[in-house]
Amino acid sequence: MMEALGGRWGPIAVAALCAIVVAGAGAWLTALGPWYRSLQVPSWKPPDWAFGPVWTTIFTLTAIAGVLAWNAAPEGAERGWLLAAFALNGVLNIAWSGVFFRMQRPDWALIEVAALWLSVALLIVAVGRHSGLGAVLLLPYLVWVGIAACLNWSIVRLNGPF
To answer: What CATH number does the domain located at 15-159 have?
Structure first.
């Protein structure tokens, strides 16, 4: 069993665990309570039930992209850069939920979501150096964060100042 985790299955297990941790932390920080329900939102906002399936798909594709890039990258610095890019993205992903929902600061979250979008773009470049397919699998993430940024901006416009 340990031999399997250290070999081919190791990157898969680590990527899956990291995706679950980031998704779980973000979900825990997402509080859809009275404050959120009182916000004015644009008519084009996706329904709340859609966010879970979309994020599940994005985290699955991100984990697959990470495994593809890790397996294709040479050992050493290249893998270190991949880990750093994924770690930065994970922290920014979690942070957005904390800033928007827990701190109730959509205005600050708007700045944070720009950093998150840039981290996804960086992730696409880092993964793309080793796996073209991995980079393509990250495109829905970039698009979704772009949609989230537009939604965040609309909420700030409709509800500010905070």
So the answer is: 1.20.1260.100
Condensed to tens digits (0 to 9), the pLDDT of residues 14-60 reads 999 999 999 999 999 999 999 999 999 999 999 999 999 999 999 99
The residue among 16, 101, 26 whose CA lies nearest residue 64 is 16
3-class DSSP state of 131:
coil
Please write down the long-range contacts of 25-31, taking CB distance under 8 Å and 24 or more positions apart: 25/94, 25/97, 26/55, 26/93, 26/94, 26/96, 26/97, 27/97, 29/94, 29/97, 29/98, 29/101, 29/102, 30/97, 30/101, 31/101, 31/102
pTM, to two decimals: 0.93
Give tens-digit pLDDT for 90-115: 999 999 999 999 999 999 999 999 99
